[in-house]
């Protein structure tokens, strides 16, 4: 066997092991556990959006913010109130539901918009 063959074989084996480890982390453990959820206010007034297992956001008209959405935090109740505390809307959300909405939760004057909406 040539002098450098063992070294090259060892380097290839190490490359395959590291590549396999990285693929395993992405497939089974590391990737996809947390996503960004865009919360937008398309109503004509300021609102406060409170997540049962997450943050409370104050959104002005046409404002949007991104929060983290972890599968383990759902289902959870999301409440939308006026700045004076008056309850405007409330809904229990499942992770599959926000996933189907491409991780966009939009609020308008009628309540939660449950279809994907392009924000200008």
Number of strands: 8
Counting structural domains, the number is 2
What is the averaged pLDDT score? 82
Distance between the termini: 65 Å
Uncertain residue ranges: none
Number of helices: 2
Q: Quick one: biggest sheet?
A: 4 strands, mixed
Helix-strand category: alpha+beta
Kindly estimate the percentage of residues that lie in beta strands according to DSSP.
Answer: 35-45%
Q: Strands of the biggest beta sheet: in what spatial order?
A: 4-1-7-8
Globally, the shape reads rod-shaped
Based on CA atoms alone, the radius of gyration comes out at 23 Å
Please supply descriptive tags for the structure shown above.
single chain, 120 residues, alpha+beta, four-stranded antiparallel β-sheet, 2 helices, rod-shaped
Structure description:
- The protein is an alpha+beta fold.
- It folds into 2 domains: 1-31; 34-113, no CATH class.
- Helices cover 26% and strands 38% of the residues.
- The strands form 2 sheets. Strands 4-1-7-8 form a 4-stranded mixed sheet. Strands 3-2-5-6 form a 4-stranded antiparallel sheet.
- The longest helix has 25 residues, at 5-29.
- The protein is rod-shaped and about 80 Å long.
- 13% of the residues are buried.
- The mean pLDDT is 82.
